[in-house]
Design a protein that fits this description.
The protein contains 7 helices and 10 strands. The chain has about 190 residues and is of the alpha+beta class.
Length: about 190
């Protein structure tokens, strides 16, 4: 494994510090999908959009009559390309454009996964649909980490799939062993 691979944060959470107040990152939890010398891409996993999966399927011409699919919330994945959809899931499927983040996570951007969801054959329980993504140029995230804008910790599928949206930030902070009430809303260096 190269140093670049060893230092990758792909598959980790990026947790916004309280001083980061700009939407959509305020109290944000980002699952990092790609992190290398060229930059970083991630998906917010705790910011609710105004849409449900039924809306997205209707807009893409895929009728669905499965209430558990239609009613699933769609999240804001980040401020970039919010018209672009991503399905974050655990199982590494056979869809056209799936990207394996690590041994746990995959993300798919192709229409075939939406078709599978619409007919009840996609990754139902362990998946999130998000619109848009977060991105950082080469070195930008590292600088933001040095500026104490973010904390990082290995991700947890339990937080992404089993924790209520409004509790995911606190739960992610808890993975580090920090009481969220003890974190100041300002940053600085000693």
């Amino acid at each position: 494994m190269s140093n670049q691979e060893a230092s990758s944060l792909a598959g980790h959470f990026l947790i916004a510090m309280p001083g980061l107040t700009h939407p959509p990152f305020a109290r944000g939890v980002v699952l990092l999908c790609k992190h290398d010398s060229k930059g970083t891409i991630g998906l917010l996993v705790n910011q609710l959009s105004d849409l449900c999966l039924g809306d997205v399927l209707t807009q893409t011409g895929l009728p669905c009559r499965i209430p558990s699919i239609i009613e699933r919330p769609v999240l804001i994945g980040g401020p970039l390309q919010q018209e672009r959809g991503f399905v974050l899931h655990l199982e590494h499927g056979h869809w056209n454009t799936s990207y394996r983040i690590n041994d746990t996570w995959s993300v798919t951007t192709s229409r075939d996964i939406l078709k599978a969801l619409a007919i009840g054959q996609g990754p139902h329980h362990k998946m999130l649909v998000v619109l848009g993504y977060a991105g950082w140029a080469a070195g930008q995230l590292e600088q933001e980490l040095c500026d104490n804008s973010w904390l990082t910790v290995k991700s947890s599928e339990q937080i992404v799939f089993d924790t209520l949206l409004e509790n995911r930030w606190n739960a992610a902070i808890g993975l580090i062993g920090i009481d969220p009430l003890q974190i100041p809303d300002y940053t600085g260096h000693v």
